Structures are given as structure tokens and as C-alpha cells.
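User: Batch of two.

Assistant: Item 1 of 2:
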Amino acid sequence: MNHMEKLLEYARLIVRTGANVQKEQTVVLNCSVENHDFGRMVVDEAYKAGAKDVIVFWNDVKTSRLKYDYASLEVLGNVPAWQAESRNYYAEQKAAVISIIGSDPQAYFGVDSEKLKVSSQASAKAFEPYYKKMMNSDFQWCVAAVPEVKWARKVFPNHSDEEAVAKLWDAILNSVRIGKEDAVKAWEKHNDFLREKCALLNDYHFESFHYKNSLGTDFTLGLQKDHIWEGGGEYTPDQVCFFANMPTEEIFTTPDCYRAEGTLVSSVPLGYQGNLIENFSITFHEGKVTDYRAEKGVEFLKIIIETDEGSNRLGEVALVPYDSPISNTEILFYDTLFDENAACHFALGECYPTTIKDGGKMTEEELKAVGANQSKAHVDFMIGTNDLEITGITKDGCEISVFKNGNWA
């Protein structure tokens, strides 16, 4: 299989397995202008899958950077009504949403952090109906990646532009199981493995987890009383299966946002709004962030934590073995889509209601009442290491090893 054949298979995989586009369904594609050729492949595959219409929103990080450099806080804090109406409208119509990402991980380095904060808060508020429906799996959505030169050079700094992009392409395609066997069958097999792990954890139905490793993580997390572990394919209310992330190696659920004690220490840098947050730690008491530190990018960690009332509590806990395909590449991607699938991680902010019994039927207030965090933010950060120990505590106080030396016990 040559490179072009792999790209075509990747586009088909995203459309037919990732987003699982249905006959006569509208598709929304978000794609950067640098990746226009691959974006067009996805559009072509979406129509071949039976899409009624494909709406494309092209984005350009360089133009966005110029806006941050020159526009006022007033302008950055205002999302035009038509933009909000457009995104929220397609969510209401249950369009399948495909996002092709891949940009310079430090695109906004040097931008005034207050501008980033104001813009982030304005977007979260304007697009809240869209994000609520997305987190509730009301429509299919899929995020996948394509290389960009500056991103590739960040990952492979000792290579030329062309060599770095080629190596990043290889890493991405391998991570989504393209090139070795039938990709669709490979994803079906992978999905079965993740489902088995979910079933095992759901049978135990742990009360809490305790985390500890040599980086300094020493943390106890309460799990929401009706939590459900999910992983691999998710389902819409119409029972359409889709994969929100390609790749995905995690299984995840909802913590009790009022029960978190201790400190979590990052194991890899976190890319946020075109900036890197490095070597950071977050301390919790009674579920709430009480302290945070970072060697670099602490101002951006502050933006995340202060987004709103719920962004200083946890909304997701995810398990990923250290011995996993992405981790074994020993590549630091500087992108959460990949790095979160190489290590155990948490998310500050919004929970996934689908990971709670009857959560999809609950109101925001009902979810908050049962410890399911509500926020306009959802930001993953990685804490997994090769010596991470996770102990599960059952309702009757029994302690069972879940992870040992970074892997499934």
C-alpha cells in the first residue's frame, strides 16, 4: 500500500468508522487550510457514504494569531450571533461533525494570556448548546489529525521539514492501524478489547481509586456512585456507533467532582491554545483545585482552571496502559489527541453524561447534584508513568490492584 492509498483509507476510516456517516445525514467538516487536500478527500468520502450535504469550515491558525495580536479585548470577547447560531444549529440537526486537526503547538506563543482567556470564555458561552450535545453524544463526532510542518518539526526537531512531516505521517497512520491489515477489522478487534476492560471495571464498580508514582502523584479520587466505564465506540440516542477520537486507547468514566484529595503531577506537557504548559502539578481538596504550579505556562493553566465555576473540578478519569501502541513509539506528540492516548489522564471541567446511569436524561442541575461536574471547559492532562500504581477501593473497603508498573494489573 503506497502513501496515497493509505491516505484514502484514512479518509474512509474517519468517515465510515470514526463519524459513521449515515445516509442522508448532513456532515460538518472543520479543517485547517494547510490540510485542504486531505480535507477534500474526507468530503469526497462523506458524499460516497451517502451524506446529504457536507459543510466545510476552513480555519487558519496564522490568521487567528494575527487577530490575537491586533484585536482588542472587546472584539475578542464577542462571538457574532451568526457564528453561534451556525454551530448550534448543526448540533440541533444532529449533523455528523468531523474535525481534522494539526497545527503548530506553539502558534500562540507570546500572545497576551488575558486575550486568550477572554476569547476562550466567550466561545465557551456562545457554543454551549453545541458542546452540551456533543458531550452527551447526541450526534456523531470524530477528531483526527494530519501533519503540519511546524508541528512535525516540534516532534522531530533533528530532521528537515520534508523528513519530519513524513515521519509524523507514519506515526499518525500507525496509531490509527492503517497499513498492516484491514483497518476497519482492526478497529473492530480493538473495540472488543476496550469493551472487555470496561465490563471488568463495571463489574467491580469501585468506590474510589488511589494513585501514586515517583513523580509525586499521590491522589485519591472518588468515583460517581452510578458511574459507567466506556471506551472505544460510543452510541448516539439512535444507536449509531462512532469513535470520537482517532486514535483512542482509553477507557473513561465520571468521577465524583466533590471527592478528590491530593496532588496530581503531569507526565507530559499539555498543549493549550497554541501554548505549552510544562512540568505542572495540581492539588485538590474536597474535589476542588486549591493549588497549582508549573515550570512553564502557568498563566495558561490559570486560564483553564478559572474558565468558570466547574473548571476547577474534575469531569473525567481515563485509564491507558503505559504499554500501549502510542506510548511504545516513545514519541511526544505535543498534542492531546495522541498524548492522552499514551498515558492515564484526567480532565478538568465538563463530564460525559453518557458515563452515568441515565445521565443523558438528567438536567444540568440534576447532574451537579449527583457529583457529575458541569463546566464550559473540558481539558485533558496526562499523569501516567511506567511506575504508576492505581488501587481500586470497593464499597466494602477491599483494595484491589488496578494498575501496577503503569499497566493493567
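Item 2 of 2:
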Amino acid sequence: MSVGRREFLAMPALLLAARSTDARIEELSTSFEDFTYRAPYKFGGKEVDRVTVLNVRCRLSLKSGRTAEGAASMPMGNVWSFPAPGVPYETTLQAMKTLAESVAKITRGFREYAHPLEVNHQLEPEYLKAAAQTSRNLKLTSPIPKLCTLVTASPIDAALHDAFGKLHNRNSFAAAGKEFVRYDLSRYLNAEFRGEYLDPYIATQPAKKIRMYHSAGASDPLTRAEITKPIGDGLPETLEDWIRYSGVTAIKIKLNGNDLVWDVDRVAAIHQVTEQAQAKRGFRDWIYSLDFNERCPNVQYLLDFDHRLGEKAPDAFRRVQYIEQPTARDLAANRANTMFEAAKLRPVVIDESLTGLDALLLAREMGYTGVALKACKGQSQTLLLAAAAQKYKMFRCVQDLTCPGAALVHSVGIAAHIPGVSALEANAREYVPSASKGWEKRFPGIFDVRDGYLDTAGLNGPGLGTS
């Protein structure tokens, strides 16, 4: 009996008849690619200088016999998704690679005709069981967390959506509504969504342009005077040069979260450099976002930071659009760190914490007012949580995982099709452009940004536009 079929047959009262649009998985393959960063990226107190990308290809079929192929990719992102203290980089990476093979095997074993949303709904519990088993088999001192499992499975889920869209000659976002999905959203979210489908929560046409957030890592040089070891590859090497080169209008600032003076001074320094660079361009309306990568010890640190930044650099303070994940990702274990006071100033969004609807609802209870959506958590989950965020009137942004190539195209598609998304972070062009080689010819407006905005031309064809 194939994976998922037992559960499928155990709930006949809940199941609806298969649709002619439902598809079955016929083939699914995975491969890995390794890339070295042109410059290290420091966040959360760690520097990353390499990446392993998981590539997925699949083929789906209809009962009529028609087939279509899909593809997707995603960086493993083990430093971010599996931050195990004392565990070497290679150990967490190998755990993700091993888990990826298990997830692929589980997915191949699902032989029902279904929509990708339903496939992911039925298989996610199996993926989590596989993560637990992988942790035991590898004798990991820290078990693979749910976030890491979502990242590992995300390109498989995306490849299914890509193939499904192509199978029906539809953009994948347009193929996720009532016309194609058997069940309403109450099956995937909660009873508040009874009778609803994704249609009103997804734009039928992508936004033509998406504002791009440029990342300023915690160790990135701001001016040429700060360069200690030139790269010399022809691309900008400082924040001031990137602003001119890409026409940057939004900057995401990585902060330490455990050194208040350093954090305030870093934002003030970035603002000073940015102000001078933007004056040369004649541009006035730039913005910032601040990312502490969950390193603030408590919410008081954030409130103190806001107060000091407002005093030292009031214009920088005024330009902060939102603050991302200031405290620990385990919200249930840190219920005292409510964000009500901080969120009065600007949206405070969850990122690492956002692993499902339960986390989103808990975050709302704790005063968070926004969500960071990410392709690396899966196309299925992203669409569903985007719907929830809209229903609950939460601020929405789309974040990066230093996504190159197909992963960046996928991310841009999400930002372009989710109403109300403020901007999209895209930093692979800064740190690992080699992983996107060739893509700039197909999507120059995404991979060679010169006006601070990502051009979505070409993203509304069949599938996700990634293959």
C-alpha cells in the first residue's frame, strides 16, 4: 500500500470524488549542486560562504493520459533552517540531503490523482516522520526541526505545482483555486475558511514590478574604505556601489541582536552612506527593514533599540518599514515576549517561527502584525498562509533564502501574485551570482536589476516559470 493511501481510505466521509483535472506523480528525480559565495553573508551571528542547491524534476499525468514535466530548486539553507549549536555545517547539510532522498521516495509512493495542495497536505506528516527517523538514523544530537523539513521538501512541492500548471496550460497560481481544487480551505486551514477557496487571495495577473530589498549583511563593507580583500569580479563590493549599480530603493539590514550599541550604530552608519548615495541619484523615498534573526534576548531589547535609534538617527528610524523576527523562533516557549508595544510603531513579522497556521495564530495572539512568506517553506504552505494573512489583515512581505536561479523566479512569482506584498528580498545577486548563470538571459529584469524593482515579465505563462 502506497504512502498516504491508508489515511486516504480511512476518511471516506471527508473525501470528494476525484476531478478530471487531478494529476498523478509518474516520475520524480533529485540532484544537488554546490556553489561558493563571492563574499560571505553574515546573519544571526554566523557567516555563510557556500550553498548546496536541491534541484527537482517531476512528471505528472492525467487519467486521460496527458503528461507534463515540472522543475524547481531551492538552497538547502541549513545554517538558517537547522541552527544546531555545536553541530558542524557538513553534518546538518548531510542530514538535509539524506532527508531530501527520503522525502522524494515518499512523494514517489503517492499514487493517487490529486492537486498538489492535497498531495502536500497528505504527505507533510509523513515528511515530518521521515525527519524524525533521519535524526535517529544519523544519531543527531539535535533533531531536524520542522522548519528544516519544510525547506527540504519545498522544491519537490514547487515542482509538482510547476508540472500541474503546465499540464493544464495555466500559471500555477491560477491553477490553485476552486476550478482545480476539490476541497475548500477549511480542510487546509480552519473552519473560518469554510466555503472559501484560494481564488480571492491570489491575483489573477502578477504585479508588473516588485520593489526589491537589497541585503546589507552584518559584515558587508559599506564604503570602499572598508574593503580589506577586494573581490575584483566586476560587480559592486560595497553598499554605496550597489545602490548606484542596482538603483536600490530598499535595504534589509542584518543586525546582531545582542549588542545594542553596535546595532544602533550599524543602522546609523548604513543610513549615512545610503543618504549620500541616494542624494547623488536624486532619489528620496528609500526604506529599510531590520532583521535581528531572532537574536534579541527579549522584547525590551527591541524597544530600547527603537528608542535609541530614534534619538541617534531619526530619519533612519522613520524609514524603517518593518522589523523581522526579533526574538526566539519558539514562540510557545517565549510567551512573555509579546510584540504589542513594538508593533505600534511598525509591523513586526514572523519568519523563522512561521511553520504553519498554528504558528501564525499564536503570533497574532502575541502581538505580531505581519508574516514573511518564503518559497523555501513550500508553494502549498505559502499560498495557504498568504490567504490566512490576508483574512486576518496582517502585513505581508516575501523574503529570500539567498535564492538563485529557479528559486528566485519562484520567489518573485509569489511576491507578484499575493495581493498586498510590500517588497521582495533578493540577495543571491550579491553573494552567489554564479548559481544564477544563464537565467539573466531569460529574466533580465529579475537577475540584472538596475532601477530597484524586479520586473515580472514572463512570469504569467504555464507553471511557475522555473523550467
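The radius of gyration is 22 Å.
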